[in-house]
Specification:
- This protein has 8 helices and 9 strands.
- The protein is an alpha/beta fold.
- The protein has a single domain, classed as UDP-N-acetylmuramoyl-L-alanine:D-glutamate ligase, CATH 3.40.1190.
- The strands form 2 sheets. It has a 6-stranded mixed beta sheet with strand order 3-2-1-4-5-6. The protein has a 3-stranded antiparallel beta sheet with strand order 7-8-9.
- The longest helix is centred in the last third of the chain and has 17 residues.
- The two termini are about 30 Å apart.
- The relative contact order is 0.16.
Length: about 270
């Protein structure tokens, strides 16, 4: 029996709601063994980020080599990679080990509004990592930032930005609609074949810390289990929507609390 394995390459969230911690919880909740490469340590909680400590690029390389030299990684999720040197190390490591499936969540701004990606790193993300991705999962502000455009406000604008992001080299794009307005939160799945809207009811809760991390890692988990990309995206969207809907069962912190990764179990 083969054990499905997914790897997250991302930053640590000391409060446990986002980043590496959210990714590993997501993998576990979906029946996938999770490994991790930590790119940065953040001092953060539900109210914001107070400090970021970068992991040296050579140590990130050592982590990547340690995982891939031993584990049969079925899918990789990339989250926070905030520095040029770290982006270079991750890109070189992926070029060396060539995983088949790579889900890239371009983490640029935290739920709290704190900027997590330095300006010079945005261009490296565009040119070094995005072309390697099977799927990128920006939210509306991140999609706009990657293209140096205003935030899309209409479905046609979103579809247009999706096509432009596709031109940067990924095989597919999922633009997340959580920052939009209206009764539904609509994500847009963009491939060379066209744009598919994926609506879900917008859940009224402030407990949305880690939603983006959890969605991208849920997609990676599905791929690691053998699902095709479109199926993995749909299943992950349904799972995250349920995790958000169950978030108010928790009472964690005084700001944007975490989603309920284990809503199926307790």
């Amino acid at each position: 029996m083969t054990t499905p394995i997914a790897l997250t390459i991302a930053g640590s969230d000391s409060s446990g709601g986002a980043g590496i911690q959210a990714d590993l919880k997501t993998f576990a909740a979906l029946g996938v063994y999770g490994a991790s490469v930590i790119t940065a340590l953040t001092a953060q909680n539900t109210q914001g980020v107070t400090a970021i400590h970068q992991v040296p690029a050579e140590f990130v390389t050592a982590e990547i080599d340690a995982v891939f030299s031993d584990l049969a990684v079925g899918a990789v999720k990339i989250g926070m990679v905030a520095e040029l040197a770290v982006i270079g190390a991750v890109a070189a490591g992926l070029a060396k080990w060539q995983p088949k499936h790579l889900v890239l969540d371009p983490v640029m701004v935290a739920t709290s509004g704190d900027r997590l990606l330095k300006a010079d790193a945005v261009e490296a993300l565009r040119t070094k990592l995005i072309p390697l991705a099977s799927l990128i999962t920006p939210n509306l502000p991140e999609a706009a930032a990657l293209l140096d455009e205003p935030v899309a406000t209409s479905e046609s604008d979103v579809a247009g930005q999706g096509k432009k992001l596709l031109a940067l080299g990924p095989r597919a794009v999922l633009i997340k609609g959580g920052h939009g307005q209206g009764a539904e939160s609509i994500d847009y799945f963009v491939t060379s074949a066209g744009t598919i809207p994926l609506p879900a009811p917008r859940v009224a809760t402030k407990n949305t810390h880690g939603t983006g991390c959890s969605l991208s890692s849920a997609i990676a988990a599905g791929i690691a289990k053998g699902e095709d990309m479109a199926t993995a995206v749909r299943n992950a969207k349904a799972w995250v929507t349920a995790a958000i809907a169950a978030a108010d069962r928790f009472s964690v912190g005084h700001g944007h609390g975490p989603v309920h990764h284990f809503h199926r179990f307790y």
